[in-house]
Amino acid sequence: MNPKQYIAARAANELKPGDIVNLGIGIPTLVADYIPSDVKVFLHSENGILGVGPSPDLEHTDPNLVNAGKLPVSVLDGASFFDSASSFAMIRGGHVSVSILGALQIDANGRIANWAVPGKSVLGVGGAMDLLEGSKKVIVTTKHTNTEGGPKIVKELTYPITSERIVDLIITDLAVFTVKADGLHLIELSPGVSLREVEQKTDAPFHIPESFKNSKEVTV
């Protein structure tokens, strides 16, 4: 399992039966393939689908059936289709239980930047702002560092902020953080990852449980 798959599988374990879940572009789209068989959730795509299923194989790919990121999807029995206005009404009306989003940066307070990189062309903000403001719970899934090896969890955002709403949980290939009023709290280290590595690759301060401080390496 590669790092992105690991992150997606870990995020899938956060879902509860009956959740209506929006999966953002990137790593979040992989979550559909790792939802436990005994957990019945309803995957929502902002381009107008409720009832998205796992990624289809090439033989069963329909070029006209895609998610908001234009990737092929399958649909489950009972799925429904609707226009974009209705889809965003669901989001803005507070009907999405959980949104799983990617991020370019996360700051020390749990706010994210995920829609624009300074100096690069931008197609549009998409639904990220609406999902942050309208979802009951927001989970961020991202690699811990960027392509240059720099930290993505930073003291302050240097990319345009997406929303003032803080996220609830951050899942990376190295660790899991929960976000509280006093900042980021480390709650889990990925298998084979040491606390020292997480500290070295995280720019923002975070709270560390005493049990982690007393161990060179904690695996879960």
From TrEMBL:
Q: Name one Pfam family in it.
A: CoA_trans
Keywords in alphabetical order, please. Transferase
Q: Which InterPro entries match?
A: 3-oxoacid_CoA-transf_B (IPR012791), CoA_trans_fam_I (IPR004165), CoA_transf_AS (IPR004164), NagB/RpiA_transferase-like (IPR037171)
Listed GO MF terms: CoA-transferase activity
NCBIfam families attached to this UniProt entry: pcaJ_scoB_fam
In terms of PANTHER family, this protein maps to: KETOACID-COENZYME A TRANSFERASE, SUCCINYL-COA:3-KETOACID COENZYME A TRANSFERASE SUBUNIT B-RELATED
**Record-stated family:** Belongs to the 3-oxoacid CoA-transferase subunit B family.
Q: What is this protein called?
A: 3-oxoacid CoA-transferase/3-oxoacid CoA-transferase subunit B
Q: Which organism is it from?
A: Neobacillus bataviensis
